[in-house]
Every structure is written in structure tokens, then in C-alpha cells.
């Protein structure tokens, strides 16, 4: 590390890109955000990514800094080894060789990574999991995804698709998931599932309890009541205040999440589970009942520490910087 | 590797120990089996392990060979890093520092490992998974356990307890597992679960379908009919011959197993799943419907190859030898 070295880091999401110049010691010296505007199509998004990255490298030089490497993380299925964004529903990527495109454009060593795995990497190395060698990072937002990080390295899987904790079966008779299968964890415990379920129950309090739902118990279409949907955070707050329907929905989500985390612990046996994403901001309203429900489910397994993410929505961008630095070390 | 070098390998099970002298190229030059006789207590079992290992090293020397290292694998929870057999129900170990005991007795570099992880290591490196970088080995017998092997190294977890695929939730309303929780995979899909369920249904064909069982639907105690229990292999054969109850039990097991493997694939994203243990010997009667059921469950995931284990019941002992050789390489 030379004084003045920085890496260029981009975390590309469905709606926005978080971008930064980051020193090797993790200090962010400059940050900016740009809209992704995914509706323009993958080619246009790639064009923006390259222009923003190039602009950041130029800004570094203008400030007397030396950009040494580039890290980009994107959602979906990412083949880190080949540097290809294989597939992404919300950005529209299909087999985009983003690493080589960016490397050619900027003339810098470039790493391409997966947003959740990079976020997990950052939480495990410099965030809430930094004291543990074996960490499971779980991001709970619109969906649920995880990163299993051992000794500072996130498992990618054979095809860049590891860590899909949102799509493990927890309720065989549960709602049909966006992926097409019934009972996936994220149909019950994601922030959007909590909001949707609460809206359903508010419209029809007699709606079946999902833990007993019949195998064809798809989520009912919501009646058009013209109301704004109550968010998961608000459901958590109403549950904490003792509201009956909110309590029921929140309990269903917490129990499903505990089932999912217990499965993760049975397979991964980690020291620390770090919860991130919007739902994790529910604080004690989530962590207290979840910790108790998880403890109930752990028999012979060792109980992991269950902690809130420390890096907020910067985790992905910091992870992109770590991947860029790792790339330099490998050379 | 010097001509004449061998490692001493022991696979200690609840009933027997498989022991061998194995050359660095994997050729078994001598094999022997001994009863574990676990009823004698952990101290006596440890005594036998040390005596057998010492005897094998002596036999190697008497044959003009040079024993260079020792590998021992045991069931239960194994802390590979510390070399401690932490806990084992069927051998009775509680925090036994087996690696150091053996190393002191034989004067050889010693590795202690976990039987299923070692079996998975052997299948991944020199068995049915040898062409893949990412392998999930699943052993299905009395229970179900797995080993996730990436680049020839099996994940151990933070406390030596990774890979407990038998204890992931697949049927929330299912039978209570030996571990105390309802609906674990091995309550439906292990060889003993298949045999037990068939015996239940033969005694009472009206017995509830477990996919709809109530949450308190514990396995009924079997009536004492004096009959010998039909094995899982025989249930598979009867299902193949079209017998109704056998077909039902086998289908339940295959579907639960497909759910478990789909969860494994969502989290690990492997190229190859290797099935071992007694149930895997059912051949096409297992693999054909299981492959179809797994394919049904995989939506965005890549479908792994599903293959039968190649090393039979020697996998654990070969894995012990590989751990011993790894130990030498590390020095």
C-alpha cells in the first residue's frame, strides 16, 4: 500500500448504484450515488457502469490519488471466476462479461462480485462478524439471500448461485414463491412478504393461517382497496404495540425465519449470523423473538451469535472494494 | 513420496472399525476390520483404536514399508482443528483428544477427522465426484449426513458440526426426530425411517399420510406383532414391483429427499451430488424418481449431477488416509 492509493468500488442495484473511492485501510474518501435506470436495458446500464467507474478513476487522479483496482458487484447470478454477470432479474443482465469490459475501459485490475456475497464479505471482515472465522450473512429485504463466509472468503458455488437462503423450503403447504415453488422462506419472512401478508389479513382477517394452509393455498390477490400497503417495519411496530393481526404476521415471519436459520446452522455451523437488509432494522422487535425461536430449534447444534449488520447499505460497496484489493493481492 | 511409504488409516464406526495401510497413490496394501464394541465405554474404545493403529504401523514395518502418518475418522461432532472427538452418540466419545493421544502413542503425524466428511472428501477427490470442484456428498443410512467439499477440502464448520443435512426441516407437521424437533429430513428419508414407516403402515394402512400430518403427529409406537421389520431396500424393491403401501412410503421418502437436496443446492450450488450409504444402493429405483423430483424443485438453480457413491463402505477409510497425507503436506 502506497499513500494515496485507492480502489474504485461500485455496488449496482436494481434502482441505484452506490459508488466510492476507498483506501486500502477501508476509509471511504469519496462517495457518490447514481440511478441505475434499469428500464433502459442491459447495454445502457453497462454503459453507465463503465462511465461512472471511469469518472471515479479520473476524479481520484484529479485529487492526486492513484486508482489501483476496480471492484464491481451486481445482483443475480454472478460467475466471479469468469467475471460474468450471468443473470439478473432486476438489472436485466444476461451473460455480460462485465469484468473484462471494465478492465479494458479503465486499464485497471478488476473484480466482479455478487452484491450479497460482497456485503457478507464486508460484514464478516470489517463489520458485525469481524471476530468470527465462520459467518453467515443474511440480507432480508424484498427477498432473502445469504452469504457464507469462512476465513474472509465468501462461498460462490459452482455456478455463482450459492447462498439462496430465500428459496429453501420451510412451509410445504405455504404460498407460491416468485420462483414457482411453494413455501420458500422468502414467501413468509421477507420484508415484502410481511407487508403483503398483513395487507391480506387486514382485508380479510379470516384468511387461513399459513402454517396450516392447503398445498394449493396461493396468496390471494389483494382486493383493490385503494389503501397504501403498510410496510414490514410498521407491521413490526404494530406487533410490538400488541396489535393482533400484526402480531400474528410477525410471529409467522419470525418462526419461518428461525426455521431457515436453523437449517443454515445445521449445514454451515457458523459462529455468527449477521442479519442485514431492511427487516433487520426492526431491532429488538426482531432479534429478541428470533433468538428465542432459533434457540428452540437448535438441539445438538451450537447456537450461533445472532447480530445486526454494522455497515448498513454501504456493505456491498465496501465488499466491492475488498474484492478489488483481493484482486491486487493475487497478482 | 518414497517407494514403500504408507499411511495408517482407521474409520471408527459404532459397530466396527475399518482399518488399512494405504499408499500415497491410494492403493490399499493391507486392510483389516475390528469390532468397536462401544458398550465397553469410550476409554476402552480409545485403547482399541490406539492398539490397532500401533499394530498396523508395526505390520507395515514388518513388511518393509514405512508408515509416515496416521488418519483416524470417527462419527459425531469432531473438531478437526484441535484434533478432538467432541461428541458421539454411538461410540460414546466426549471431548477425547484422540489426535494427540494417537500421535503420542505412534510417534507419527496424525489427523483426526469426521467419518462422513472424510467419506465425502474421498468421493470428491478420487470417487464419484472426482471430475467436479464443488461436491455435496450425502450419506443415507440410519441417519442422513452430508459433506460439502470444495476444491478437495470438506467444510467442517466452526465447531466441527457442519453438514447435518439429516436435521434440516422439510415437514413442519412431520414426525418428531431423535434430535427432538419435528420434521427433520431423516425422519422421512433415512433408511430406518423408510423401514419404520412401512412397518407402521403395514400394521395400520389407515395411518395418516405424513405430508398432511398434524403438528403433534408423532410416529406411533409400533404394535408388537412379532414380525421382523422389512428393510428400506426391500421397501424399494416392493415399490418397484408396484406394491401400494411400499410405493407410498418410497414416494414420501423420495419427495422429502428431493426437498432436502433442493435446499442443499440452493445454499451450496454444487456441480455434483454424490449419494452414498445403504439407501443409495437402491439404484435406479431411487435415482430415477429422485432425479425427476429434484428437477421439479429446481427453478433458477442449476441442476447438479446426481450420482451414486463409487467407493462403497471404504470411503471413510480412504478419506482418513487422505487426511493423513494432507497432514504430511502441511508440514
From TrEMBL, chains A, B:
Belongs to the ROK (NagC/XylR) family. GO terms for molecular function: kinase activity. PANTHER family: BIFUNCTIONAL UDP-N-ACETYLGLUCOSAMINE 2-EPIMERASE_N-ACETYLMANNOSAMINE KINASE (PTHR18964:SF149), ROK (REPRESSOR, ORF, KINASE) FAMILY (PTHR18964). It holds the Pfam family ROK. This is Sugar kinase. It comes from Micromonospora craterilacus. Residues 207-221 have a biased composition (Basic and acidic residues). Residues 201-225 are annotated as: Disordered.
